[in-house]
Amino acid sequence: MALMRITSPHAHGPMSTARVMQNVLLATVPGVIVLTHFFGFGTLVNIIWASILALAFEALALRLRKRPLGFYLGDYSALVTAVLLGIALPPYSPWWLIAVGIASSILLAKHLYGGLGYNPFNPAMVGYVVLLISFPVQMSSWAAPRGVGELPGLLDALQACFTPGNFDAVTMATPLDLLKQNNSLLMDDLWQQNVQFGRWAGIGWEWASLAFLAGGLWLLYQRVFTWHAPIAMLVALALTAALFYDGGSSASGGSPLFHLLSGATMFGAFFIITDPVSSAVSTRGRLVFGALIGLLVYLIRVYGNYPDAVAFAVLIMNFAAPFIDQYTQPRSYGHAARRENNE
Description:
By secondary structure, the chain is mostly helical. The protein has two domains: 11-172, no CATH class; 174-327, no CATH class. 60% of the residues lie in helices and 0% in strands. The protein has helices at 17-27, 29-39, 42-64, 69-73, 77-88, 95-108, 123-134, 136-139, 154-162, 175-181, 187-193, 205-221, 228-244, 256-260, 265-272, 283-303, 310-327, 338-342. The chain is globular. InterPro entries: NqrB/RnfD (IPR004338), RnfD_bac (IPR011303).
């Protein structure tokens, strides 16, 4: 009898790979709605253009590798990568920036290693980091949120994407940027002098984080992934921020609530580090994997060169995931512990 030669993720029945990817796409909807409400149509245009490019690059790679197009395009993995990268990019990104990011994600991070199931790094985060290192100006141009600046319309968003030289958006530093650059103001003063700060973190960002939290909890309810990695990441980040929080001085690294609701924390915890291919596999391994990502996020945000650090932390731990699994494998059923064997 011939055996099927397939790679992870192994899912059968109602929880097939395509069904899992569809659930992930549905879970991003609340966050996308909130981002669109606060920042305009830029994120939506990012996602649509990224999805078109992802399907085109996926089809090209499959044709070059002589793989069936229908089967692999139907698993929705390319669309998930496109949506995740489109959400992570600043609204109103130019078309060429999105194209470079998607090409890096699909061609380099995914198909260069053999396709879905073989990629050691999260494809969306590879594309994001390539763009962040190569085009730091464009990657730091976040639009002003609702309540601070006038939101561009849909036609403006399309113009910003496809004719970026003819569009001038109102951009400003993110709360993480402001905290990173601050060296003289107390936290209360910094909060009062910058209109982009909201109640807990930043206007728009805090509510988007709560929306992604809601989507992530729904995925947990659907048993798309287990709680170990995301909860370990959030707890480790909160505990580290609480340990080093000094009450709000000019040298403060930010409160635990600020770090939990700023940047890509919730988005990364429930939609990025839960990737079944590039993360740790064992239960204890997921706990270690998530906790170390949370620790790295705080250290890079406060002491590193980049204000947000989820992508870098994830890629570093993707590299370490096989090592973590090696030392956190559960004991085989029926085998005594090594200590007991030596007695």
